[in-house]
Amino acid sequence: MLTGEIQIRVRYAETDRMGLLHHANYLVYFEQARTELLRARGRTYKDLEDAGFYLVLAKIEVRYKSPAYYDDVLTIRTTVTRSTPVRLEHKYEVFRDGKPVAEGVTTLACVDAAGKLQPMPEWLTEEKKPEQEV
C-alpha cells in the first residue's frame, strides 16, 4: 500500500473561538495530504487535470478523537487502501505528538470534463512507486 506523511501547523485562522481546530479544516488537511502523496509519486493534480482526468470526492468520513489547537503540529499519515479502475480510497490518521487526533476515509471517483466516470491513468492505480533518482 502506498503511504505518506506530512506535517501541518494549525494556523490561527483555522480555529474557532475556543482555539480549537475547526472540524471543516480536517477536510482541507486531508486534501493537502492526498496532494502531497501524489506529488511524492512524481505527479500533481495539475498533471492529471491537464490530461483530462478529474478526481472528485464521492464519499468522506471523519472521526474526531481529541481536539487540536492553534499552533499544534499535526502529522497526517495518508494511505491508499483500495483502487479500482475508476475509484481511489484513502485512509487518514492525524496525530499530535504521536497521539491520535482524528481519522478519516475518502473515496475519489475519476471523471472527465463533463463529469462522466472514466478509467484513471494506469500509473495512478499501480501499487509500486516510481523509481527514485540517485
Quickly list its features.
single chain, 134 residues, alpha+beta, Thiol Ester Dehydrase, Chain A, five-stranded antiparallel β-sheet, 3 helices, 5 strands, 39% strand, elongated, disordered C terminus
3D architecture notes:
This protein has 134 residues and is α+β, with helices and mostly antiparallel strands. The chain has a single domain, classed as Thiol Ester Dehydrase, Chain A, CATH 3.10.129.10. Helices cover 19% and strands 39% of the residues. Strands 1-3-4-5-2 form a five-stranded antiparallel beta sheet. Strand 3 and strand 4 form a beta hairpin. Residues 129-134 have low confidence and may be disordered.
How many distinct beta strands?
5
Could you list the spans in which at least 5 consecutive residues all have pLDDT below 50? 129-134
Q: Strand percentage, roughly? A: 35-45%
Number of helical regions: 3
Number of domain units: 1
The secondary-structure element order is EHHEEEEH
Helix content: 10-25%
Provide the residue-averaged pLDDT: 93
List the helices and strands and how they pair.
Blueprint (H helix, E strand, L loop, with lengths): L2 E7 L15 H16 L4 H6 L3 E11 L8 E11 L3 E10 L2 E13 L10 H4 L9
Short summary of the structure?
With 134 residues, this protein is of the alpha+beta class. The protein has 3 helices and 5 strands; from the N terminus they run βααββββα. The protein has one domain: Thiol Ester Dehydrase, Chain A (Roll), CATH 3.10.129.10.
